[in-house]
């Protein structure tokens, strides 16, 4: 989140973030509170499900 704030401080309009793996550790909710939307390609839960 620090990087998003740094970009905002220099005038960028940051609203969406992309991550590869969402580990489901409240990050999405924390970012939402900071008015940022997290988009993940995969979830940890999904990855674990296909490895069984």
TrEMBL record:
Query: What keywords would UniProt list here?
Result: Glycosyltransferase, Transferase
Q: Sorted alphabetically, which Gene3D superfamilies does this protein's record hold?
A: 3.40.50.2020
Alphabetical list of InterPro entries matching this protein = PRTase-like
Q: Which domain of life is it from?
A: Bacteria
> What Gene Ontology terms describe what this protein does at the molecular function level?
glycosyltransferase activity
Q: What is this protein called?
A: Orotate phosphoribosyltransferase
Recall the taxonomic lineage recorded for the source organism: Bacteria, Bacillati, Bacillota, Bacilli, Bacillales
């Amino acid at each position: 989140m620090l990087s998003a704030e740094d970009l905002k401080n220099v005038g960028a309009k940051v609203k969406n973030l992309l991550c590869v793996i969402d580990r489901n550790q409240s990050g999405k909710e924390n970012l939402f509170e900071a008015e940022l939307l997290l988009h993940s390609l995969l979830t940890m839960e999904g990855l674990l499900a296909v490895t069984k």
